[in-house]
Amino acid sequence: MSVTYGFFNSVNGDRTYNADQISNYFLKLISNGVFATPSNSMQVQAATGMNINVSAGWGFINCKWINNDAAYSLQLDAADSILNRIDRIVLHLDSSTAVRNISIQVKTGTAATTPTAPELTRSGDVYELSLAQIYVAAGAESIVQANITDERPNTAVCGYVTGLIDQIDTTNLFAQFTDAFYSWFDAVKQDLTSATLVTQYLNTYTTTTSNVSTIPIGITQYNFALDILNVYINGLKLIPTVDYTVNTSDSTITLTNALDVIGTPVEFEVLKSLDSTGVESLVNVVLSNQAALGGLKFVKCTQSEYDGMTTHDENTVYIIAGGA
């Protein structure tokens, strides 16, 4: 049993530290995962043929870091002619004396009638985080984005770095969502006869003076009672009623802590129904046809229920229906 501490200036060599001691400084501050900003950090994306790219970004594994500063290309093995398989793209930490690095690798799955993704290695000197699963269909000659399941948000196999960094930009959370959504939507759109859909409005306000606390939302379509408002400062999402309050009389927000730096960007996002009727129809069609899509879950709730949630799961689409 021992006590360790750090860091202090060395006097005549009486204070020396190794890489592990310096890295372990972050042990209780930053979790394993990939950094969530920008939203496509370390995202696996389809390229040409059996090639995929891992976009630029940072990762953190057991107090060691990796910086991928450009798209990193990998090639998958050729598809089996008869059976399907599932591959994984991983961040692979090997802390053994002979290796001592973090690499981006393909873990090739086993072709099978009912394929499963290869297990992650997390023992000895090796620890892996999964960026994505890739479904390789029998006879496939190329990979499309709908074949790629983003696993970055899944804390069981990867997760986003939290601690000092606790806000997430989810703009590109699932690259495969678009392809998968339209395939799904074709199957249910005949039921959406009276449903309403949701659209997004964005506006950015940049401070021109210091000590600013009241800021105009600047989105004329915003309806306080019906719409969802998200506010970001320097890419970090604010918590309503904690970090700011909405002034319905003049469509502004009042920040709990005023902004002192001139030129600070404040971003507003409004999610709004395209009409005022048929919300229940859309919700019921979505929930009855498919409870999850491309890793996303659909949850039906009222605006007050949504606002009352202490956290909002980045893997969930919240559909506001009925009342306030």
Describe the protein's architecture and organization.
The chain is mainly beta. It has two domains: 19-168, Triple-stranded beta-helix; 181-320, no CATH class. The chain contains four helices and 21 strands. It has helices at 19-23, 177-188, 279-289, 303-308, and strands spanning 33-34, 44-46, 51-54, 57-61, 64-68, 72-75, 85-94, 101-107, 122-123, 126-136, 148-150, 198-206, 212-216, 228-233, 236-237, 244-247, 252-259, 265-273, 292-293, 296-301, 316-320. The strands form six sheets. Strands 7, 8, 9, 10 and 11 form a five-stranded antiparallel sheet that branches. Strands 12-18-14-15 form a four-stranded antiparallel sheet, with no helix packed on it. A three-stranded antiparallel sheet has the order 1-4-5, with no helix packed on it. β16 and β17 form a beta hairpin. The longest helix has 12 residues, at 177-188. It starts with 18 loop residues before the first helix and ends with a strand. Residues 277-283 and 289-294 have low confidence and may be disordered.
